[in-house]
Amino acid sequence: MEGYGNHIVQYSPEYSLCAGCEACSIMCGLTHEGFTGPGNCRIRLKLARRSLIHEILSCQQCDDHPCYEACPLKDDAMCIDADTGIVYVNEDSCIGCGRCMKACKFTPSRISLRRSNVKRGTKAVKCDLCRGNPDGPQCIKYCQVVCIGLSDDSVLREDGWWPKSAAPQD
Amino acid sequence: MPHYSKQDILDNPNNTQGFLGFVGKIARINLSTGEVSVIDTYQFVPKYVGGRMIINRIAWDELPPGTGPFDEGNKFIYMTGPTTGTGIPAGGRSEACAIGASNNPEQYSWGNIGGWFATELKYAGWDGFIVEGKAQSPVIIKIKNEKIEILPAGDLWGTRVHQAQEAIAQKYGEEYKSMVIGPAGENLVRIASITHANDCCFSKGGFGAVWGSKKLKAITVCGTGVVAPADLDKLIYLRTHMNQPGMRPSPVLHKTVCGIPGSEFPAVYDRGNVACSPGCNQHCNALLINGVSAFGPERQNHIEKCVSMGTFDYRTDIGSSVGQFWPTKQNYCAPCKMLGQEFPVPDFSDPHFEEQAQGFPGDTYDLWQPDYDRGTIINDLCNEYGIDKWEVVIWMCTWLSMCQKEGLFEGMDNLGCSRPVDASDAEFMKEFIGNLVYRRGYYGNIFAEGMSRAIRTLGYEKFSESIFHNRHSRILGGKRTDIPVSWEAANGQSVHWQGRGFQGAIEKPTWLAMNINNMMNTRDAQTVEHFHAGFEHHAPALADPYHYQGVIDAIIHIQNYADIKDSVMSCEWQSPDPRWPEMESVMYQAATGYPMTPEELMEAAFRSKLLFRAFLIRNHGRTRQSEIASIWRTISIPDSWNEVADWKSWNEMVDLVYEARGFDLETGWPYRETYEKYGLEDVADEMERLGLLPTRPAERWSDYGEPPFVLFSELRKLEPDYEG
Questions:
Q1: Residue B391 in contact with residue B447, Cβ under 8 Å?
Q2: A30 with B229: CB under 8 angstroms?
Q3: How distant is the alpha carbon of residue B288 from its chain centre?
Q4: How far away is chain A from the Cα of B315, in angstroms, using its nearest Cα?
Q5: B283:A19 CB<8 A
Q6: pTM to 2 decimals?
Q7: Structural domain span for residue B635
Q8: Does some domain include residue B310?
Q9: What is the pLDDT of residues B309-325, one digit of tens each?
Q10: Is A80 on the interface with B (CB under 8 A)?
Q11: Can you list the domains of chain A with their CATH numbers?
């Protein structure tokens, strides 16, 4: 489990206020696919155009992983990393049916579809916590205000924010 | 799902050079006919770089002389840059130009805006758009990827800025990003702005009124495509190096003190910091949380940059320091760091540190006492009605206060309000601004025309040139110094770092340069042309402020970088960085893959400035005489050292700038060889056809004549303490 937590969390503004720069979603798209765009990022900003206090939306790596259960090619297209428990998409096998996207229990769905880079058709796009990247999730790495981090706690917080005490203390 | 891919961008048959960064199309949207057509972006690049440079080319080709701001022939030309949406810092901003309504006289104007709209437009597959013609009834332009629709917006007409944004999101979806006008734009108030999100505005130029004249309430966009930068390694280097991002928590702070250093006052409020646009690696905008609203009990958050500070308290003006305008490489603080209150630790080993730290306190005025809630209400009025906060705070409020204190409003029916004229009274300001936004009554209609025109209607001699008797220079130990009640600069715009009035306490070489930039423009230039030069130039500039070549070179550099940053797409607070002169070319390379050099960018900037100049000459009759006349009154007002500009020396300085730009000294018009040097032979041909191409005189011209008459200067001489 080293280097990985359970899922991306957003800290409360008393720890750090999201700057609204979208570096998280932009760098997600750039480091995964080499381009940016709303369809290919695995983390996104729910823009608060008046208050400017934004909410960050990403996959919560649910323990019951309904996206995985809904996949007609589970363990081939939608897979679970045996070491980390991360639910991830194997793009080579994904047929772009969209069932995982519909099965996601969050609104909006934390899974989206994008055009395949290499072949015709669509692919599911979902946070894999930058699995295999020794630097860990790139959204966290490039967040200029450290308003997001990792948590091992799989309990979803209703207000969406994680308290200051949950944030890095250094 | 994305409606196009990176490969589609490269497969565009017009993209013969394999550019990335751009998405390849500019939309032409005609509100008169309802037609939408497509213009190829790649025909303009790399020669016109992107953003403002492309706009200047289109404007030259498409906006004929005689076009006014409210004419059907006026066009709102909007462009993103190649860095927009790529994740290159500051690239999320965008640019627009049109014949402006707030300038006096009406002239071609420009603006730069932050927010999420520009990036969304590129995701929709558009690098920009031209809005032309006029609708018969209120409309909204709805852009969903390739599909552009002109739809009825009668239900939105009359709504305030945030009501309109909310209604659009509810109708079309939260994923849509909108630019809207408020009631000010609808009512053709000349200082009306266009607003996206919270306080991301095109404010200068009165573009909101241009939209209002076209019956255009809003443009909303949703895109599902991609933006592809060319070089990820360069991009990441830019992200991690441009002005050293903090990469540390930025908490909301509970504050108990507000105000400029040295003039703080108690106020309880929460403050955070946010970025102005997606992709940036800085967060320089202050977010003032839960402020009082002008329109009801609901609390609102407000963005604060620098102008809003004036709304809270105007006992004293903002001061300055030497290092602010004359940095060393060892001690350079990017403006984004200053605004974000993330000052770097000074390098005390800098041998010039003591001189750099020398500060100049702002003059005292005592226009209004500290009142955080009153300031927040005025900010809210500007935001919700969609009017230029600069003009309201820096010009209108100060003018109201100074005229009232000088007793100039006697017998003027409280300027049409039910309460006595009092700029420090939030209730008066609500009524006064409401009257002008809705053009209510005699005075509402007058002030809806903007301060420059309103003052002339009311009586220029009295309401512009009367002396305010309570300005005192702290630099001179509290000495009273004359200033007129109206803080107007060139082209009917308010002062801004010009050595008198708001942000006035700056040294002569600095304000001379700022006023050159203002004079040669059509609006407040300082939003992208703050003057700065290396510290090594400071002492020689002080010794000969009008003639030192280092300052002239810096002026040209700053002016050109305005067009570079508005075209590559960056911002005033990140660019230029004196420690990294190649930064903008690296940005362009990272976005497009084109090996743009700093020299090539500078050449493109000279070209863009030439196009702008040619436009002003052809469309607006710009001459040396007209532009010097537009600024001379401003620099005839004493600075904080009680000094004014010298006519002969000022003209000699203008000569040096004109020569550096290849302009004729007598007319201020570029020579043919200047146009040809930058690949604008066609422009030279048209100027020749119109008789606007000067011939080089046999001898150097120097017939400056007499300075324009400035009534304020004559009135000063009647003051009992006048020292000459």
A1: no
A2: yes
A3: 22
A4: 30
A5: yes
A6: 0.97
A7: 488-499+507-572+597-717
A8: no
A9: 889 999 999 999 999 99
A10: no
A11: 7-154 (3.30.70.20)
